[in-house]
Amino acid sequence: MIGAMKKKYSKYWRLYVFLIVPIAYLLVFKYYPMLGAQIAFRKYSFNGGIWGSPWVGLDNFVKFLSAYQFRRVLVNTLSLSLYALLASFPIPIIFALMLNVLTRQRLKKTVQTISSLPNFISLVVLVGMVRQFFNPLVGVYGMVFKMLSGGADVPDILGDPAAFGHLYVLSGVWQTFGYSAIIYLAALSGVSEELHEAAQLDGASRFKRILYVDFPAILPTVTITLILRMGFIMNVGFEKVYLMQNPMNISVSETISTFVYKKGLGSGMSNDYSYAAAIDIFNSVINLILISSVNAISDRLGETSLW
Fold it and tell me: Which domains does the chain carry?
């Protein structure tokens, strides 16, 4: 067996040479930085560096779990993530199924292009658009409210904690649903027309063909996408949340990602890098448990899973 392997390597050694660069890349930029994760188990100091700082074990994790902000940031993170998942996950699927019904290719491509364009707007610009639109003084929302209420004072919806989640999620749905539908449209393009013709001969309506022909064809793609989304359930987008955050909605907008930034980088001279790293590792472990659990459930219930 060893002789066969040597013979194989000697025959294809040129191909194995090409593996040196990607393997070196993975080792240097992916695996070696993981050694720095030990900062979460130390009391970091600039003088000692990561390797020379004193070891404190799980103290940083205990500190986070016992912090008075722990429950609030965890609830806010889960609330926003689950709300975004429930709102944004099914809409691209429904949109793709509806768009696939269109027979006029020109109209179909036009709708697909227009719906995909918002995805290329940067988050900074998107939040700026949201702030401008819902500005109580000069925004469209403020002017329409004054017109309909006869000049009454306009509530500041940007500072309303109850409105933060809706603004965050719905603006995200508008931005991404068209682009997210592309993967489902690609899966639908592989559905055989013979299946639709057979269903029509059996008297199936257009809705039933969507339900029993189109949807089963994209179900494996839907399952894989859902599993991947569950792996990021704790990763509420930092940039957008931070940009939409203000002192009036901080009670519902403080998530784990913004909390990590403030503790690790946004506290000036009192930055606690070890504490921030511990919180981030806690976040990653929860994501790993979620994606592994959902993948196991999917594998148990069906034939589609990541591993």
Answer: 39-301 (1.10.3720.10)
